[in-house]
Amino acid sequence: MIDQKYDVIVVGGGHAGVEAALVAARMGAETMLVTMNIFTLGQMSCNPAIGGLAKGQLVKELDVMGGEMGLLTDLAGIQFRMLNRSKGPAVWSPRAQCDRALYTQCARQACERQERLDIRQGTVKRIETQAGKVCGVRTESGNLIESKSVVLTAGTFLNGIIHVGEVQYASGRAGEFAAEGLTECLLALGFEFGRLKTGTPPRVDGTTIDFSKMEIQPGDDIPTPFSFRHNRLDVEQLPCYLTYTNPQTHATLEAGFSRSPMFADRIQGIGPRYCPSIEDKIHRFSERERHQVFLEPEGRSTTEYYVNGFSTSLPEEIQLEGIRTVAGLENAKVTRFGYAVEYDYFFPTQLHASLETKLIRDLFFAGQINGTTGYEEAASQGFMAGVNAVLSIRGQTPFVLGRSEAYIGVLIDDLVTKGTIEPYRMFTSRAEHRLVLRQDNADLRLMDYGHKYGVVSEVDYKRMLEKRHHIEASILALQGLKFGPEKINPVLQQVESSPIKEKEALYTLLKRPEVKLVHLAKLADLDILNNGDDPFWQQVREQVDIEIKYEGFIKRQMEQIERVQRFGSKQIPRGFDFGKIKALSSEAKEKLGQIQPSTIGQASRISGVSPADVSVLLVYLAR
Q1: Mean pLDDT over all residues of the chain?
Q2: In the chain, at which end, N or C, are there fewer CB atoms within 10 A of the end residue's CB?
Q3: What CATH number belongs to 458-555?
Q4: Can you tell me whether residue 178 is helix, strand or coil?
């Protein structure tokens, strides 16, 4: 049976799949989303939260280009916090607790209401190809669905195995089947794969928790929206709670280590280094007497709590006994036990920077199939793969973000250039230009792209252009406004800043850490100094404050970016034969041939390619 022919088929309905399908349809492509379970579209499989350190930046970038995750978070959020406020704005990161069920409901509604997007429940068994190009997918029923491009977002389902103590069974997520057949199909096409592992903690009944023994963790007084489309959020926030493990907890859990699949070598996949299981933390950091445990609400309509920091695959009776040693959880009832899931992934160095595979044209991989962990990393890849799937079938230039443009650019460049042998997670430290890649200026950096591809509305785009204009105009005006000591010193005295002796521009005064625009409101009749409570002008003031205070650092970083771009943007022809350059080292020939970098900059970041090799390559290409 041959089904309707589509422009784009997206396989998998997780965070990557939802973003890929929505953006492809919004760009005008006839799109089908094939998912194993239509009731779990956009499901938060692990923790009920979006954002966090560096991950929040990914979501903000995704949102301003027309992605859905930021909007879904605002709709389903039950607590909002801006992390790292005590540090500089380069590392401020938004995070939100979400109502898990409401998030999934909103994701499904977004997909169902999207024009040109069809949804079908089913399992894809094969990727169909002709002459090195994808031509569709075949489902478990034998049905062929033809398409011009395919985006594969298989999550943790490829030959997934769940481990709980000495028990293991095939599953991609608790209560759902594993996806079998796809890995074997991709192997037959020539792809190489590995195994990874991730895990999830138990959930407990909130009515059995003694919160009086825990530290309350409230949200921000004024919640910051994730989506550019929201100026403010009117939401009743729910608290989280902090408690700790103790020596008794550790001893109880250690007693079950002999039955742990991790210590018994039943799990072959590599787990996330930066989000270890509780047994791994106890084993690796034996000198610590306690570890943090956060109790996070699963939603408004449930009493269930997520036990963050207690990820485990120990036997169920050991999990229960260990949990009940933690302060406040002595009488806790477990509603769902923790488990580890092991699954196949494909080495991301087999992809171009567009996320198209090098072996099969118009086949794209996105999400955990590329070795990443986290909703935000998956969603970002899904969006980029969806855009590029449409551009590819239209014969247009791929959309590739540079490392100096976005955290998304850093994420994808790291994957396709360096690869990964462990679950990849985004950190602010991975972004060498993080001072200019802040969460607060994502719209100014990236909304032009969303508008270019037709997935950002004219209303939102014009508002961003107006914001950009007022920022530039305000900085110029503040440079020209000068006042003498008689007007300035009373203001400086109020903020405990040293007085001036002669006229100074307001721009110069704002370079002082303790002086902010709001302190200067009575000195000049400027729009930026008025309109105090208006959210739009608050955003403008925040940008102006940051741009002025960090001018020197930002200028140096921009100069560095320009130097890198002058050197690194030189294109390397696709399919270039590096083996014919005799002056290259043997290792460089091997690595360059394997990765097939598209630019000199990407080539320079490949492990095993030396500066001397890059110089040789530059000379050869110049000739």
Answers
A1: 93
A2: C
A3: 1.10.10.1800
A4: coil
